[in-house]
What does this fold into?
Amino acid sequence: MALDDLLAAMREEADSELAQIEREAAEEEAAIHDRACREAQALEERSDRDLTARLDAEAGRRLALARLDSRRCLREAQEEAFREALDASLDRLGELRGEARGAELLVGLIHESRGALPDAGLLRVDPRDEGAARKALGGADVEVRADLEPTAGGVLLEDGEGRTVRNTLEHRLEAAESDLRLRFAAMIDERAREHGQ
It folds into this structure.
């Protein structure tokens, strides 16, 4: 349930940021295009046919370069928006720590990890999650160490044979990044089609 909330929040924030990015990119492309066309037209009116042909070629080259630059700017802005959405989602997930949903999420991560590595004897957690982790284990024969680097939430489960299960929110977002990136790109494409771009 938390991942669905995360994706919904990311979509909402990405929609807003994407709309702003698209407007700015479209305005920039239009301004560059208008300048190039005005320059080409002014020169064309003063020049003979050969000069006009050369200027048309130059205007086309400049327009192509402007479009490339505009697309590069848009890609960079989209990447920045994607990163900001991920960071904001992770921040929001970290804020759940003080809420009942945060405790439920931690319990779910612990049980999921123990299901993957049932013989593990060491559970490492962020110091802020120690109490909730001990409560979630309910007296199970698992040592709890509150020495995991600060996380938005989650656990690292280890057994005595070197096997580990890293089940932190950061790790889960990282694992889902490819899928999230594809969804983000699809959402951007859909928005662009809606705006006729």
User: Anything to note?
Assistant: The first helix runs from residue 2 to 46. The chain has two domains: 2-96+178-194, 97-171. Residues 24 and 74 are 9 Å apart (CA to CA).
